[in-house]
Amino acid sequence: MNIPAPYLLYLGHTTDPVGIKTSRGLAEFRRHDCVGEFRHDDCPLTLGLPRMSIAEGAAAGARTLVLGVANAGGTMDLPMIADAKAALEAGLNVASGLHHRLNAVPELVAIANARGLALFDVRDPPANLPVGTGRPRAGRRILTVGTDCSVGKMYASLALVDGLRASGQTADFRATGQTGILIAGGGVPLDAVIADFISGAIEYLAPARDDGGWDVIEGQGSLFHPSFAGVSTGLLHGAQPEALVLCHDPARKGIRGLPERPMPGLAECLAANLQVARLTSPNVRAAGICLNTSSFSEAEAQRLCGEAGHLLGLPCTDPYRFGVEAIIDNLLCHERSKPAPIASR
């Protein structure tokens, strides 16, 4: 998806820090493509980018306003539509990962057509996705899974790709959500795929490969989130992962959007994910744990990682703070421990 850069990142009226995760992801992983952030006075959040009006963003060279926000249901309210309209009138393309499509708003379509601009709906899945089969396929695949949604699965996936490449491995990031797709420039928006095709969409996204390289597949949702467990299940089956990396936010007490429902235990969650994954990947194993410790001091983060690692007997890290070297070592240790082939005589 060739969305013209540079970007002006939209925060709008959002007050929930998790609600701007798409804009934050672009600011973190494609900062060189971001000229600034647009937010209204009632938005207390910032990405550390220059605050700009839409006109100032256009003058600074932005070519696309990215509506990098997320809310329950993925809707666009009237103020957001008004901001998208203002961006088009200022000469900017508009991109969105919300379920409410830009191209379903006639007023925006009319302005874009009249000005020769584009509306990019990142959550439009590819046409003619196959039904999954679960048949074994070649390749080495890692899937990030989580105790909840929005606990850092995308950050962990990108860090794992970088870590594998630093170790001399070939590795590719396979995006399954709006933020990942915007960062990678392609992928499958899994939560917009009809349920029957979820596992097939992942087989399509990460097909068989024979080059010894790794596909790091971005996880979505959680088996323990009543709203999104179906997407997580399809991902586990379609990915046929060799290994899982469990992601968790230790500051979170209740499931996102359902605070009355407590978070699952790490051991319970990992066991459930391994069991579901075994349907299509009987030998799947756990490779490590990634914690989002952004709410804690560095000393407390180290303690939390140590406790979780000891509990599950796995390397545990905050990929953003401490890197993923220990998890990469664990991933590759099986390969390194294989006996060398006997030379023929």
Automatic annotation (TrEMBL):
Coiled coil: none annotated. Residues 47-125 form the D-glutamate N-acetyltransferase-like N-terminal domain. Pfam families: DUF1611, DUF1611_N. InterPro entries: DgcN-like, DgcN-like_C, DgcN-like_N, P-loop_NTPase. Residues 131-327 form the D-glutamate N-acetyltransferase-like C-terminal domain. PANTHER family: DUF1611 DOMAIN-CONTAINING PROTEIN, GLL3100 PROTEIN. This is DUF1611 domain-containing protein.
